[in-house]
């Protein structure tokens, strides 16, 4: 009887410890014009999220997609590529910074940045410099925003 009680107590303790934490789902809009009047943008363009959170990219305006920039994401992280005019939900498990783009509008500066966890900005500057001028400038602005805010909150720039 005593061993049965110990088993039940142990099983209940195990269930309590195994209770999953609830990950958040964030939304990023793909828009022709953002709240600041900039054309072809993600809104928000910078997010800080926790490991295990998801981001749903929503094509608010037609003609957009969201996809990772393979050379500007943490080593070992899973890349993603959404289809034009379709939502895509991505789960971010690996800490670090992820740069992403809208393939049809990357040349117009349609890029975004997601910080997962508290990792410092560690994107390779040489890889950022390989982007065309407008997306490079926009991504550098977003990196500066992440560093200035110390990644404490999601920003909408």
Overview of this protein structure:
- Its main location: periplasm.
- It is found in: Periplasm.
- It comes from Devosia psychrophila.
- InterPro entries: Amicyanin/Pseudoazurin, BlueCu_1, BlueCu_1_BS, Copper_blue_Plastocyanin, Cupredoxin, Pseudoazurin.
- This protein has a single domain, classed as Immunoglobulin-like.
- The protein is built from 3 helices and 8 strands; from the N terminus they run H-E-E-E-E-E-E-E-E-H-H.
- A hairpin with a 5-residue loop joins strand 1 and strand 2.
- It starts with a helix and ends in a 9-residue tail after the last helix.
- The C terminus is likely disordered.
Concise overview:
By secondary structure, the chain is an alpha/beta fold.
Domain module count: 1
Helix content: 10-25%
Cα gyration radius (Å) = 19 Å
Instruction: Assign the CATH class.
Output: Mainly Beta
Order of helices and strands: HEEEEEEEEHH
Q: Per the principal axes of the C-alpha atoms, what is the gross shape?
A: globular
Strand percentage, roughly? 25-35%
Low-confidence region ranges: 6-19, 151-157
Protein name: Pseudoazurin
GO cellular component, one term: periplasmic space
Main location: periplasm
Cofactor: Cu cation
List the helices and strands and how they pair.
Blueprint (H helix, E strand, L loop, with lengths): L1 H16 L7 E9 L5 E5 L2 E4 L4 E5 L8 E2 L19 E4 L4 E6 L9 E6 L8 H4 L4 H16 L9
InterPro entries: Amicyanin/Pseudoazurin, BlueCu_1, BlueCu_1_BS, Copper_blue_Plastocyanin, Cupredoxin, Pseudoazurin
Subcellular location: Periplasm
Cofactor: Cu cation
